[in-house]
Specification:
The complex is a heterodimer of chains A (73) and B (697).
Chain A lengths: L1 E7 L3 E7 L5 H12 L6 E5 L2 E2 L16 E6 L1
Chain B lengths: L24 E2 L4 E3 L2 H11 L7 H7 L15 H29 L3 H7 L4 H32 L1 H16 L2 H4 L3 E2 L15 E2 L11 E3 L1 H17 L28 H5 L6 E2 L2 H25 L17 H4 L20 H14 L5 H10 L11 H30 L6 H10 L10 H10 L11 H35 L4 H29 L10 H11 L5 H18 L3 H11 L26 E2 L5 E2 L1 H13 L5 H19 L9 H12 L12 H4 L8
Parallel strand pairs in B: 3-5
Antiparallel strand pairs in B: 1-2, 3-6, 4-5, 7-8
Helix pairs in contact in B: 17-18
Classes of the chains: A alpha+beta (73), B mainly alpha (697).
InterPro entries (chain A): Hub1/Ubl5 (IPR039732), Ubiquitin-like_dom (IPR000626), Ubiquitin-like_domsf (IPR029071)
Keywords (chain A): Ubl conjugation pathway
GO cellular component, one term (chain A): nucleus
Chain lengths: 73, 697
Amino acid sequence: MIEITCNDRLGKKVRVKCNPDDTIGDLKKLIAAQTGTRWEKIVLKKWYTIYKDHIKLEDYEIHDGMNLELYYQ
Amino acid sequence: MASRKEKPVTGKGSNSTSADDDRPTANSTNETSISVEETNRLRAKLGLKPLETGEKNSTAEPSSDKKDVHVPAENLREKRTTEELRRKLDERREKRKIEQKLAQVRTIAQTATKEDDDTVSWVEKSRRLQQQKEEAAKRAKMLEEMDEAFGVGDMVTTELIKQKAKAYTSKDLRGLKVEHDRETIVEGKDVVLTLKDQNILQEEGDVLVNVNLIDTERYKKNNEIKKQRPGYQPYEEEEVDEHGLPKPKILLAKYDTEIDGEKRDSFVLGKAGDEEAKLKAQKLMKDKLLLQQKKIESLESRPLQIASEYYTAEEMVSFKKVKRRVKKTKSSRVLKADDLIQGTEEEAASSDLGSRKRKMEEETVEDLSGFKVTIEESQKEIRQAIMKANKLKEKKVEQWDITTVARSIKREPVEENESMEEDPMKSSIILNATAEFCRTLGDIPTYGMAGNRDEDEDELMDFERQLAEERRRNQEKEERKREAERLQERGGWNVLERENEQGSDDSMDVDRHEKDNATVILDEEPDVGSGMAAALKLAMSKGYLEKEEKKRIVISKSAQELQAQRYTIEDKATEDDKYSRRNRFDGPVVEFKDKEGYKPMPKLEYMDDNGKPMSTKEAFRHLSHKFHGKGSGKLKSEKRAKKDEDKMLMNRMSSTDTPLNTLKKLQDKQKELQSPYVVLSGKMAPTSIVKPGKGKK
């Protein structure tokens, strides 16, 4: 289990617990559940790379305690 | 509702205790997070597998396969010992195997002990063997004896020899090739020939060689190679073979062996070989003979002769004259097949040339189109002359009917001359140098242009004649008028017509004159009907249209004439000056009349910046400063300025007065006081000091 912090710099900061073999899509769903937004509208970014839904966290080398940028589309 | 007893995984699990089950909790840092349990529930809803919490799982089952397993390091000593043990075991096994194998093999001693246990049996055995041998020998002897008894032995031997002889005779040797020079194998001496080693696949006949001869040949060849000089020998002497005959030189002979392979002397045993040998011998004989011939040399010199300056008839043969080719000049036109045929016919016809003289005559009779020019340097001129004469003749014939009228007016002296010449012998022309010269002169276009020639006279006569005619016409006119006046008394209209007629006649007269002249100058009137070009041409010739070119030429000509009348080189200079810029260094070309006595006195004066004239020294300095781009220093320039000022002051100072103008002041004072003196010191008595008439200076 890993914990990831997602922050849109508009007042929402979420810590999400997830498995490393979850996909980004799953993560988005979890975030959506926590924040109350629709998961389709979420964009996860790190610098300029937009994470794609069907790829696992471990494949993106997202580890415990990492910060992801949270955007809405 | 999540149980609060569950220990949260994260350190910040405490905040979840106060949180509502669905709602994520916000902590002080505005960070929301939910507990594992809640997450798991959420995940279940989303259809995801539960979170893998390490603590929980570790108690339930061993850690995942990904975990590292501690592998103890290998004990090298143990390993070595085990290896050694194994090796020893293998060795043992091998040994055992070998021993087993050896155990099966019997040794000599063993066999001896087994079979020939005692010496008796051994002796018996050996004895038996000997007996057998003896028996075999006896039988052979017996057979021999039998053969001898019947006389078979001799026969057999003779047969054998015969067979051998039959197998190989000199007949069989015929056609065999011996790869040696014939001379090397000397008669009466045994030479053992062997079959030469050859390629198996080679299907040529056998070749015989002698090993010794091969060796000698090789030696010879090597010697020759040693003697060889480097490839290029510009001054090589002719080599001579053993008979003293020069060897034929072969170009780049050194490459022959490489190209053709090695050449070997060979002869074939049998008839053919003999033939070849014979030929060779013959050739040798010939060579020898040649050599002998060469050696014959007479000491007698050639008989003396008188040196002649001329060649004899025999010698002249070598100077055979090269025949010049007959060139044909034809009028340039497109070549057609018909022309070619004609040409061949002509050639056929002209192949029978006959004598040259007759041909010349023929040619003179021939008209120009068929004229053949045979170019030979000596005759070229003559032919040209003939051509010219022909042309003239033609022209004359053409002009005859036209010129009958014009002849009375204009007459060409040359033509006349010609006609006179022509009259006595019309058919042929006599060619002499002067006549030719005259004839050619007749065609010179510039002849008579320069004035004081016959033609001038003609022109004059022409003019006079015209005048006379005019006079005559006027007379006629007057006569007619008079007649008309006479007639007018009878009837009016006739006169007018007559007059008209007269006028037309007059104009016609003029026309005729013009025509007469035109026959010489103008071409025939072009046909208008043939096309636009023709019409234009006509118009041009009539003068309806004027060529601009012509006009311009005319104008320019007239201008030139005008100019030329009073043309001097000086004029040209002034004229040019008007248009071109005057060269300012040259000055006016025409002398300036007012200043006739003027002799310029050039004087160079240099002014400084203040406009003062400088001396040569100063001028030089000034120029130098300008040239070098830097003046003299401050001190020096100041000094110079001071000097200048002093000089100026000096100049200004009058020679009659002091620098302070005391004299002038004195005079002024005297004028003012109206006294011839001036009192210098006020309190003194004037009389005592200053005397009248004597001013202070």
